[in-house]
Structures are given as structure tokens and as C-alpha cells.
Amino acid sequence: MTAQRTLVLLKPDAVQRGLRGEILRRIEAKGYDIIALAQRTATAEELAAHYAEHEGKPFYPGLVEYMGSAPLVAIVAEGVNVIPGFRSLAGATNPTEAAPGTIRGDLSCEQDLPVIQNLVHGSDSEESAAREIGIWFPELG
Ligand code: GDP
Ligand code: MG
Predict the structure, then answer these.
(1) Which of 3, 25, 86, 122 lies at a 20 to 30 A Cα distance from 101?
(2) What is the number of domains present in the chain?
(3) Per-residue pLDDT for the chain (141 aa), expressed as one digit of tens each?
(4) Which residue range forms the structural domain that includes residue 52?
(5) Residue list, ligand 1 pocket, CB within 6 Å
(6) How many whole angstroms separate alpha carbon 138 and alpha carbon 116?
């Protein structure tokens, strides 16, 4: 297998809760390398591009509002099979269903909010990773 790169976001709830270090620790402890890392508040354009696949879904307005409400941390991580590997570290989308031992399973719980706040994003395929890295780190494209 050859090394892959994936786009990880530490979402605003991860930053606000002071979990950047804990989540980065898990990524590094697993053996993945951090190639790029930047904290900033996402623009509407970045979020529209990043979440284009979800436009029109009931949770989409809440999703882009939450993701743009406060700073997030964008990361490119590298390693063999890091795309599925980081999704395994993250756990299921719904924190109640995310297994203990995963980032979402250990560190987040379901809330009574329009969007599920679940700490992290990870690319779901090689195509998504290339597209998303191009949005957040055009200099790496
Ligand atoms: P992911 O790849 O596991 O992050 O999940 P998706 O790509 O399907 O969804 C993107 C994000 O939208 C999720 O991480 C959640 O923050 C949110 N989300 C997804 N599905 C739902 C849903 O059914 N209800 C709500 N309220 N939020 C959702
Ligand atoms: Mg997704």
C-alpha cells in the first residue's frame, strides 16, 4: 500500500472544548504524520464547497452555521490507509453510536441541537480527500 493523505477538521466544538491536543495526540499516537495544520474561522465559500454533497438536507443550514461559528483547525494527515484509518479513529457520525475508544465515542455525546456536533471531520474516499485538501490547503493541491 502507498501512503495516503486525508483532510481532518477539528470542528468548532473541539476547539471550544480544548480538545485539540487530545485529538492530535490520538492521530500521532496511531502513527500518522501531520503534514499541514491551520486554525481559522471557515468562510461561507469554503463550507459550501466542503459540504456540497449535503446541500438540501435538513441539517445543512445548521451544519454550515455551526462550522462557521468559531475557529476550526484544518489538518492534512498522512500515512498508509489514513483515509479509512482516521474514519476508524473518529467513529460513527452519531456520538451515541460511536464505539468507545473512538474520538466521537469517548469525547462527544448527542445534543438537542439542529446539527450533530461530533468534534471531527475526516475525508471518506481518495476523491474526497483530494478535493477537500484542495479547498483548505490549495498550496498542497
Ligand atoms: P461524517 O462523514 O461522519 O462527518 O458524516 P456526514 O458526511 O454524513 O455528515 C457531515 C456532518 O453533518 C456530520 O459529521 C454531522 O456533524 C452532521 N450530520 C450528519 N448527519 C446528520 C443528521 O442526520 N442529523 C444532524 N442533525 N446532523 C447530521
Ligand atoms: Mg462526511
Answers:
(1) 3
(2) 1
(3) 789 999 999 999 999 999 999 999 999 999 999 999 999 999 999 999 999 999 999 999 999 999 999 999 999 999 999 999 999 999 999 999 999 999 999 999 999 999 999 999 999 999 999 999 999 999 997
(4) 3-140
(5) 54, 59, 63, 93, 114-116, 118, 121, 124
(6) 28
